[in-house]
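Sample A.
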Amino acid sequence: MNERAAEPLSDPSGRDDIRGEAAPEAQPGPARARERPRSRRALLRPPLPRGTTVRAFVRRDFLVTRSYRVPFALDAVSGVFLLATYYFVSRTFKGVPTESLHGAPSYFAFAAVGAAIGAVVETACTGIASRIRQEQLAGTLEILVVQPLRSFDLCLGLVGFPFLFGLFRAALYLGLALAWIELDLATPSWPGVLVIFLTTGAALATIGIISGAFTLLFKGGTTVVGFGLFALTLLSGSVFPISTLPGWLQPIGNASPLRFAFDGARSALFQGSGWGADALWLSTFGVVGIPIAALAFDRALHRTKRKASLGQY
């Protein structure tokens, strides 16, 4: 530091000079008014593109899940043991009539479709709630919600990898089941199977987004959501026909959206037709329900932010 620079710092009057020299000159009113919008826009970060957000979430969740290789492999093949159980139960009661099995040639074929669709149902309905719970436990949910993300994009990102993984499991279960029952591959309507799977995921995303909102508002809500989904899946004809239920429970099973998913998949696989009405109903349910569910999730997220309870679980 030279003498000229050190001299004002040691002199109290010099500090006044420095303070005076450092003070910026007042700008004219019109110039300051022109600069204010630029500074305000600089503080507002635009939301990230939807495709970029979902891909980033999917890649992150895949890498995290793959890092635990043994649980990842066991989760992928866990349904095979369930299929084996249905297979031997079907062999035990081989002479049971199949008129009420919605075109399935055996009970095993009937239950295998229920297991495959159940993998998609589980992912679509509980994926968001489970991911929110994991983010809370890891302490990363607060970091996510302060990013420039729309609430609906956050939903899509959180459920992206679980949904794709559920589709993979469903395809694996169906492939094994069709090999075991030796079904003629010319019988199914493969476009119908694909449409039913996709519309099922879209329709049941409504339930999944609402379950995510429920988890935000009521801590530990994943247990309630899981129990309700298990009961609804049983009543909707996943592993036994709705006609076998008591009379007072059959209206619940017939009104469930899951029933259209199970019936549509069985019609497409075992009859090759008759799945169009089920796919249309599932599509309608998704188109109407998803915007309502997304609004509910957005309100729940804002309420949780106001209460500063995002990290509580």
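Sample B, a different protein:
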Amino acid sequence: MKNVVVLLACFAIATACSKREETPVEFVENTAAAATAPLNAEFADLKYVEMGKKDLAALNAGNLDGYLSSFSDNARFYMSGGDSLIGKPAIAAYWKERFKVYVKSASFVNDIWTPLKVNVSQRKQDVPGVWLLSWYQTNVEYNNGQKLSYWVHADFHYDSSDKIDVAILYMDRAPIVAALARK
């Protein structure tokens, strides 16, 4: 019995160590289908990066009207903290109050931009079209003397007139609420 086990072990080692020639796998692409199928998403025109940078520069200069000029009249503005604003007048009133009542100074720096064209929605609620994704650092001094620095991720969707019709800001609002509560 021992001889059989030793023989099987030697056979297993010999076959495991032998060099086998592998046949390469070839992938055949259906070029007709690939040429007609739209990509789910692709990079959009770089003009949207310039548009986003212009808007952020307007905010840096304290020019809220310049910033708001990029929004459509029926724009929707969402923030991760739950605030939602519908319509350009509501968006304008919110930002003007924030800068008048709470913010002494603000700067937006270290910005990163990615323009994306969504051709096919991945979920029912996704909006196809041009999105501008951005990340930037926000440095704020509030009227109560508190200073805060934090990162914001912002997504902007552009309508067919190249106006922002959806804006979504993602940020941790807990430090902001805490800074505003301090006297």
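Observation for Sample B: The two ends are 88 Å apart (CA to CA).
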